[in-house]
Design a protein that fits this description.
Shape: elongated
Radius of gyration: 23 Å
Strand order of the largest sheet: 3-2-4-1-10-9-11
Distance between the termini: 15 Å
CATH architecture of the largest domain: 4-Layer Sandwich
Helix content: 25-40%
CATH class of the largest domain: Alpha Beta
Largest sheet: 7 strands, antiparallel
CATH superfamily of the largest domain: Aminohydrolase, N-terminal nucleophile (Ntn) domain
Number of helices: 16
Number of domains: 2
Structural class: alpha+beta
CATH topology of the largest domain: Glutamine Phosphoribosylpyrophosphate, subunit 1, domain 1
Number of strands: 21
Length: 502
């Protein structure tokens, strides 16, 4: 997953893009980059690290211009340790194009071969975003045929991209001397929204929170398959470029990824999480008698709305029992040393008085590997809880994600090929309650009747693009970022700044 933003204004945009990226920091903490344009020249700075660390005063001064784009990266394909794979990516022909991308291409290897053998374009990294940029650049070159660039020529190129590319992609590109382009894949798997400032500036970004937080008024979401071109005068052109677009947003955006104060495809993320708590309440009652639960405690941070609603409906006290240390970063890798895993106890501390002598229901947004859940359950027991129940606002995560979430291989997923009772034994809780898949879809889907469905592949194994089989998943897993090394490093969600912390 990544966060992307692009803007066209009548004033310098460097600070505006920086501020927008801070609001999207929860979507990626590995690297950050900004590019601006002045008089057809691009100015770029990108590096590994958080936004506040990558950009210093000297870097910001070196980013002049009234149009630009930026990205925060949490890598899922390519090389996690290469600064060359931080975005934006650049090609000098045609026109000069820089691009940022949120998502994951499922046919990147096929496209690489086509680019080399047929299109005669060079790919210099393992990033699928560079592949996407070169496919678009090649199609734009064909659609313009050396003529002056027009919005229609840009849209024709995007239409060809849709025909060649598979997977998920929300894209923002800056074409030198012409404007900013934004488009989504035909299923709308990854989010993209557009807003306008009081001064006429037009911004496109992954989440509405980055629009509103920078003083822009939300106008609309970019539709699946649609392309929006904003010329340097701020005029907006748009066209549907896909032959059969359908809206199947990633349901994990609502479960965990997005900030609760964002609205994605017409759905309030906060309300979606409240609804998940409501449907979860029915599952809890069928498993554990409410009078056997003394207190409901969320596991910070994304589970709080669901836990609040659950406690309200069951009439059980809601308490904060864990305090998250927001300042625990990633482990430093010293020469000659392996990567040291950090304990969950460095990131969470218990308020023992909320556990001692009580039957506690812990609520989490989802359970992926199960290792964090196991340690948290043990922390509750160590704090004196009589019984520890665990409820997940999401169903069991049984399948890998191929659309841009760093979801582990099937073998690493605690729910893969296991019953709920087997998972309960591994985690060590007294009862384990999961949301059911259809209940989750109804709870969130009821907030927008115009949705065609969801990509819920990590829960139900149905890949909406229709081009994924077991061999594809194995191949994509082989390309996972620093797979062997990353497994030694703590990449759990507790190790990263959360939506509420951003």
């Amino acid at each position: 997953m990544c966060g992307i933003v692009g803007v066209v204004s009548s004033a310098p945009v460097n600070q505006l893009i920086y501020d927008a990226l801070l609001l999207l920091q929860h979507r990626g903490q590995d690297a950050a980059g900004i590019v601006t344009q002045q008089e057809r020249k691009f100015f770029m700075h990108k590096a590994k690290g958080m936004v506040r660390d990558v950009f210093r005063t000297r870097n910001m001064r070196a980013l002049p211009g009234n149009a630009g784009l930026g990205q925060v990266r949490y890598p899922t394909a390519g090389n996690a340790y290469s600064e060359e794979e931080a975005q934006p990516f650049y090609v000098n022909a045609p026109y000069g194009i820089v691009l940022v991308h949120n998502g994951n291409l499922t046919n990147a290897q096929v496209l690489k071969a086509e680019l080399f053998n047929t299109d005669h374009r060079h790919i210099n990294t393992e990033s699928d975003s560079e592949v996407l940029l070169n496919v678009f650049a090649h199609e734009l070159d064909k659609s313009t045929r050396g003529q002056h660039l027009t919005p229609e020529a840009v849209f024709d190129a995007v239409a060809q991209v849709h025909k060649r590319v598979r997977g998920s992609y929300a894209v923002i590109a800056l074409i030198a001397g012409h404007g900013v382009l934004a488009f989504r894949d035909p299923f709308g798997i990854r989010p993209l929204s557009m807003g306008r400032g009081a001064d006429g500036a037009v911004m496109v970004a992954s989440e509405t929170v980055s629009l509103e937080g920078t003083g822009h008024v939300f106008e609309r979401h970019v539709a699946p398959g649609e392309a929006v071109f904003i010329d340097l005068d701020g005029k907006v052109h748009s066209r549907q470029c896909a032959e059969n677009p359908k809206l199947f947003p990633c349901i994990f955006e609502f479960v965990y990824l997005a900030r609760p104060d964002s609205v994605l495809d017409g759905i309030s993320v906060y309300q979606a999480r409240l609804n998940l708590g409501e449907t979860l309440a029915k599952r809890v009652v069928s498993t554990v008698p409410p009078n056997d639960i003394d207190v409901i405690i969320p596991i910070p941070e994304s589970s709080r709305p669901s836990a609040t609603q659950l406690a309200h409906l069951l009439g059980i006290p809601y308490r904060e029992g864990f305090v998250k240390n927001r300042y625990v970063g990633r482990t430093f890798i010293m020469p000659g040393q392996g990567v040291r895993k950090k304990s969950v106890r460095q990131k969470l501390n218990v308020i023992a008085s909320e556990f001692k002598g009580r039957n506690v229901l812990l609520v989490d947004d989802s359970i992926v590997r199960g290792t964090t859940s196991r340690e948290i359950v043990q922390m509750a027991r160590d704090a004196g809880a009589r019984k520890v129940y665990l409820a997940s606002a999401a169903p069991p995560v049984r399948y890998p994600n191929v659309y841009g979430i760093d979801m582990p291989t099937a073998e690493e997923l605690v729910a893969h090929d296991r019953t709920v009772e087997q998972i309960r034994e591994i985690i060590g809780c007294d009862a384990l309650i999961y949301q059911d898949v259809e209940g989750m879809k109804r709870a969130i889907g009821s907030l927008n009747s115009k949705l065609d469905g969801f990509d819920a592949s990590c829960f139900d194994g149905v890949y909406v693009t229709g081009d994924i089989n077991a061999d594809d998943i194995a191949r994509i897993n082989e390309a996972r970022i620093g797979q062997e090394d990353a497994l030694e490093e703590d990449t759990s969600r507790l190790a990263l700044p959360n939506a509420q912390d951003a």
